[in-house]
Amino acid sequence: MAQPSSVIHFSGHQHFRNRLALSILSGKHVRIDRIRSEDKNPGLRDYEISLLRLLEKFTNGTIIEISVTGTAILLKPGVILGGTLQHDCPTSRAIGYFLEPIIMLAPFAKKPASVTLRGITTDEHDLSADILRTVTLPHLQLFGISQGLELRIKKRGAAPGGGGEIQFLCPIIKQAKTVNFIDPGKIKRIRGIAHAVRVNPQLSNRMIEASRSILNRYIPDIYLYSDVYKGDESGKSPGYALTLQAESTTSAIYCAEAISEPGVAPEDIGLKATRALLAEVEKGGCVDQKHQCLVLLMMVLGSEDVGRCRMGEPTSKTIQFLRDIRSFFATSFKIVPADTADPECTQLTYSCYGTGYVNANRTLA
Predict the structure, then answer these.
(1) For the chain, where are the alpha helices, taking DSSP H only?
(2) pLDDT tens digit string along 27-47?
């Protein structure tokens, strides 16, 4: 048993996934207590327990102790194993909830990862499979993780029934590259995927038309793709969604999506996604808000050099993540306004000195 001083303590159920991922990467034991202790239904939820099971499968030698009431947990991390595994996610959260921590860990595993997850592919709380494929994975390429990095959407699954399936393939690296990404560039193209499952395929075209009615004012290079899944590949529940991404001349990517809601016309869903994308572009920076944590983590794990990245204002989740990074890796960020000449500019430049984290789990070839 480790000495109590080496156990990092947290309270509450927020930021649960990031803390578990940081613990496994840093090798420090973590104890999280008071998990919904005041709630009528206290303790861990089914999706959090499922995530713990997934992390246990993905690593080797990890010991997880959960208290009787489920309001406290102690995690003693093992080595990140990777390899081939399958996992059924509960329908209370989408696949994105489970895949995000895996994406943080997979490049530093012992073997290249091939993870198959089944469940809901798109919901309003978590990143959808489309955003993970078209936006999250290109962010990893900034850090030299590219060859063999892939996410395949085998089946779609809308809430509440699920029934979707995705396969995530990730190579292993020795060390993350230092990133220096401070020029956001100008938007040069917009891409999008409208998908409809177990509903009239015409609905995705209606979303595309509504979205184009706004986007055509800005740039000509717009390609919105209608993705229709039939039969067994379309999951168990009806639903549709529109995922948009805008790419700049320096490969900065902004994304937004909107999911079907009962009693709301597809045109309104298309407009909602489009407005969300424009709002994201207005915030600016080189990384959009949904991916701040991933990029900051990879900067900390980079080689022993100063990494810099320009982003919008940090979300409350990002602020807490920076504090947690300081607890686990004793690394702080220097955050300064990106453009001191422009008083209107809300963008910030984040810079830190990488810890020189080397993938020690990798089998020596």
Answers:
(1) 16-26, 46-58, 95-105, 129-131, 137-141, 202-215, 266-283, 292-300, 316-329
(2) 999 999 999 999 999 999 999
